[in-house]
Amino acid sequence: MILKQKYNSKDHKIYLGSILNLYKEIQNKSIDLVFADPPYNMGKNFGNNKDKWKTLDDYVQWSKEWINIIKSKLKDNGSFIMMGHPHYSAYLVPYLDSQFTYVNQIIYHYTDGMPEKKNFEKRYEVILYYRNNPTKYHFDIEDVRSPLVRYEKYSNTKGKNPGDVWQINRLRWNSKERVKDNNKIFHASQKPLRLLRRIILATTKKNSIVLDPFLGTGTTSVACKELGRKSIGIEINNEYILKAINRLKETEFKKEKFSYEQR
Hints:
By secondary structure, the protein is an alpha/beta fold. It has helices at 56-73, 93-99, 193-203, 219-227, 238-250; strands spanning 4-8, 12-16, 31-36, 74-84, 101-109, 124-131, 165-167, 180-181, 184-185, 209-212, 230-235.
């Protein structure tokens, strides 16, 4: 599917199509941050596609193809952050290690999930954080510090580093952020704005360009507009794009800083 531009404003663009067909639409070495929330190979239904490959090798090979494409678009001092399933994403780590500089494996922990009777309930996803260059990058902890639990003589009075375990609730069906259609969940894996705000604030500056190759219903674009960043989104499902465009149009830049509960 050839990429087709569906939305174009001064700072935000959205394309319909597959990341595998990304060629001339984005200049090489022009992106400050790639945030990717790709299919996890779990068999979820995403409207016009299902995230299940015939074999694990097929899934890994497909992942390598899109990772190779986004690497060419990333600036030399850019960052790459990818959501993943704890099991399947592990197969991608050796390739990621060969292409980027490893920084963190962050645990995205939530307190609710689907009930389980035959095994322990699943309560987390992983966030793989890499940089294109081990010495040249942007990282600013100041805007994402968390409140101090107790004060020690070496504590920063502005707050502490949130660490690599983030307890951020998933979006429930009745969340104000949740995109719905006829009161039903519209996207099976919509991520909370709080999660994207933290990632974007820590790894980019104002006016940085953020690429999301699996945009879904547009959470990354919305967070970028709130925070004064530019965004490029790619999504294969046109119905998701329509929702993303509506969300983006309704979003405004926030001059005031977000509280810890919001990022």
